Structure formats: structure tokens, C-alpha cells
Amino acid sequence: MIVTFLGTGTSTGVPVVGCHCRVCTSTDPRNKRLRQSVKIEAKGKHFLIDTTPDLRLQLLRDPIPRLDFLLFTHSHADHIMGLDDIRPFNFRQRETIQAYTSHFTAKAIRRAFSYIWDANSQIGGGKPQLELTEVTGPFSHDGVDIVPVPVVHGDWTILGFRIGPFAYITDTNGIPDHSLHLLEGVEELALDGLRLAPNHPTHFTISESVEAAQRIGAKKTWLIHMAHEVDHATVEATLPENIRIAYDGLTLRFE
């Protein structure tokens, strides 16, 4: 299995439009963060977790030969608004692409992209061909076993995902005990770590993320979904050895 981080930034991306702070003007390429997403290759299948507004740029930089299916964590704009950019895969593959998510997120996607399912809407340059499947527990797609991991995101419950030795949890400020059980034995973990400042209502701060990572006990944890307050080199130097900061283009390989 191969996991590639297409983006590791929060909803604004980094640099932030109009900002001239030290991180936004940094020459360190690890401080350039598109919106949060990953691509995964497993058992010969290629899939994405979330379709960010930067999806086209992400897949031009880190291409995939085909798109077999999608996983959606939740319906905030920075996680779904690149959905229209799956159309080239529909054109080439000549098939509908399957997507999996929670009932709440599926409902929001159908509302935000209602033209996809409206038979009377103008086709124009083509509409994404997408079939949404609502999941409540573990499932498989063409031999790839996936475990949804419910987590708290403010007032919402959203999904993280575990695929074999890898788990992906973005946008959270709390992991319930029953979800911690689903993460037992995970080798590498991608975990929300928004910023240094405390008390964010919907995201782990970095200190909270470190505490959660130590409870989960993965061999290595990668902090993701970071704001422009996080300078890669400076902050990573303060972290435990097995907790690192992810960056755009980072690739993890699993046997």
C-alpha cells in the first residue's frame, strides 16, 4: 500500500491569501500546504480521501492512472469542493465512480452538487458520474478493506478511515473510546494538528494531537491539516521522535 499526502493544510491553505507572515513567505517547500487530502494505492486500486478545492493541481503534481473510488470524511468546503474535477476520470473510464461516506455527509453532498443527480440539468461539459453509498461500519471495495472511524468535529460526528496498518483522522477535537478501539495496532497515523495556540472548538491543537497520538500508540504519527502558524522545521523540532509533521508530497509505503 502506498499513501501520498496531496495536501496538508487547513481550509485556507498555506500561504494564506494576503498574508505576509514568516510561514506564508517561507522558502521551505514543506510550508506550502494545499488543502488536506490523500491518495492511496492498495491491492491495485487507486482512491482518494476527500476532493479538495485544490484537487486538479494536486493530481497534476501527483497523478493517478485511474480513480477507482472515493472516501469522504465530511462535507466542509475544503474537503468536497473539488468534486467536479473527477470528471476526467469519468470520461476516460466510461463508468460511474463509487463514493463512501456517512448519511449526514452524503445528504450534504447531494445538496451541494444537486446538478449531478438532476436529470433535467444541463450537461454542458459533462457532470461527475458518482454513486454515493452510506456506510455505518467496516466495508470492502474490490478487496480493499476499510474501517470508518467516527470522531468528533465540534458539534458534528465525522469519519476518519483505517485501511490496514494506516489510519487517517482529519478535522477532529475528540476521539471517542469506541473509536480508539478501532485504531488498536495501527502502524502509522495521520492526525489533525491545526496550530500551536490552545482551545480550538473543532480541531486538535498540536499539544492535544500529541496527547491523542500517545494514547493511540501508533509507531509513527504524522500531523496534518495545519494552519500558517505552524513552521515545519521549528515545530517539528519540539515533537517526540515518533511524531512528525506531514508535508505535501510525503509518501508512506506499507508491505
Characterise this structure.
It contains 8 helices and 14 strands. The chain is an alpha/beta fold and about 260 residues long. It has a single domain, classed as Metallo-beta-lactamase, Chain A (4-Layer Sandwich). The strands form 2 sheets. It has a 7-stranded mixed beta sheet. The protein has a 7-stranded mixed beta sheet with strand order 7-8-9-10-11-12-13. It starts with a strand and ends with a strand.
How is this structure best summarized?
By secondary structure, the protein is α/β, with parallel strands linked by helices. The protein has eight helices and 14 strands.
List keywords for this structure.
7-stranded mixed sheet, 255 residues, 14 strands, alpha/beta, Metallo-beta-lactamase, Chain A
- Count of structural domains: 1
Overall pLDDT metric: 97
| Main beta sheet strand tally, sense and closure | 7 strands, mixed
Order of strands in the sheet with most strands = 6-5-4-3-2-1-14
The CATH class turns out to be Alpha Beta
CATH architecture: 4-Layer Sandwich
Query: Which structural category fits the helices and strands?
Result: alpha/beta
Ends distance: 7 Å
The share of residues in extended strands comes to 25-35%
CATH topology: Metallo-beta-lactamase, Chain A
**Contiguous uncertain segments of 5+ residues:** none
Multimeric state = single chain
Global Rg = 18 Å
Count of alpha and pi helical runs: 8
Helix content: 10-25%
CATH superfamily: Ribonuclease Z/Hydroxyacylglutathione hydrolase-like
Detail the topology: elements first, then pairings.
Blueprint: E1 2-7, E2 37-42, E3 45-49, H1 55-61, E4 69-71, H2 77-80, H3 87-93, E5 97-101, H4 103-112, H5 114-117, E6 130-134, E7 139-141, E8 144-153, E9 156-163, E10 166-169, H6 177-182, E11 188-192, H7 206-216, E12 220-224, H8 232-236, E13 243-245, E14 251-253
Parallel strand pairs: 3-4, 4-5, 5-6, 10-11, 11-12, 12-13
Antiparallel strand pairs: 1-2, 1-14, 2-3, 7-8, 8-9, 9-10
